Amino acid sequence: MYESMTYENLLADAKAEAGDGIQKGEGSLVFNALSALAYELEKLYIEANYVLNQGFADTADMDGLVRIAANRGLTRKAATNAYVSITANVALPIGWRASLKGFNYIVTEELDASDHIYKAMCEETGSGPNELLGQLTPIDYVDGLTSAVITEVLIAGDDDETQEELYRRYLESFSTEAFGGNITAYKTIVTAMDGVGGCKVYPVWNGVGTVKVVVISSDYGEPSSYLINQIQEALVPTDGGTGYGYAPIDHDVTVAAVTPVTVNVSTTITYTAGYSWATIGDQITAAVEGYIKSIAEAWSEGDARTEALVYVSRLEAAVLNVTGVTDIQGTTLNGSTTNLHLDSDEIPVMGTLVVN
């Protein structure tokens, strides 16, 4: 709004107001006085413009957006801890600690005493450990321990909510209102749970009073059965039954995981002079993986009628954006040259990439 209020414009306006017949050249007393004034005024206009922008969600910075979103009852989601399943050769005490590739874990719960299976929390928040599986290095000593392995990520860790993500949730809060077990109510409840990246809600999917909730993990993959059970228990507790969880009375709720569909890609690439697969293969792979993951990230924005599509043309466009790629042709998805159609509960996951 105040973009025109620059030092130069303010100084020119001040000099014009001073009138004629006065020495206003650079170095004169009047020039020096007006120059200092214009400089200070420019700073005031910059600050005024900043304050004005903080009043609108689309121009506010993160701190301003957090305060605006709070007026809608929305709180910025903080980074969360990942939870994993550990299988050991001996019993582990609650509180036992170990590490894997720079991340530390602490045992929080015994899942299976006979097979020595435990739930453990990554002490560092964020998505960093979401892909880590394997042998742990003990921090605490346990007599007879020779093996402790992370076998599964039970609940994926989340990073701090970005400004773009919070702004999107803010806009969505105006389009639909969560009330009395409607679709928005279920989505609001389920997506607020740790490890959940989104969900689709199918009302009356198997008769009157039935509701199906299909969930995708926070790293946009297939959630663990542990997480699905946790959500099911939160909506309709096993002990209490209908009406004792988040789900309204008489809602028969079924929680399920998205179904991953492996996408194997084959294509032929022409390289710019000086480039080859050896030099830019990693960037090409990242471009393909990024496109496929973007489809999974947008999956929860649809509904029961929305089917995901993996487009050959868009995948090729992503690869063409890589510096060093001149042309791409003959692309197939799972052996077919046509677009890959997925059901409403399916998401694509990267399989093999063969480049000729």
Count of structural domains: 4
Given the C-alpha coordinates, what overall shape results? extended
Mean pLDDT: 92
Largest sheet: 7 strands, antiparallel
Could you tell me the radius of gyration in angstroms? 28 Å
How would you portray this structure in words?
The chain is an alpha+beta fold and 356 residues long. It has 4 domains: 7-53; 81-155; 177-257; 260-355, no CATH class. It is 30% helix and 28% strand. The chain has 8 helices and 15 strands. It has helices at 7-17, 29-53, 62-70, 163-175, 183-191, 225-235, 277-297, 312-320; strands at residues 81-88, 97-100, 103-112, 117-125, 134-135, 137-138, 148-155, 196-203, 210-217, 252-257, 259-271, 309-310, 325-333, 340-341, 346-355. The strands form 4 sheets. The protein has a 7-stranded antiparallel beta sheet. Helix 6 links the parallel strand 9 and strand 10 (252-257). The longest helix is centred in the first third of the chain and has 25 residues, at 29-53. The radius of gyration is 28 Å and the shape is extended. The model has no long low-confidence stretch (mean pLDDT 92).
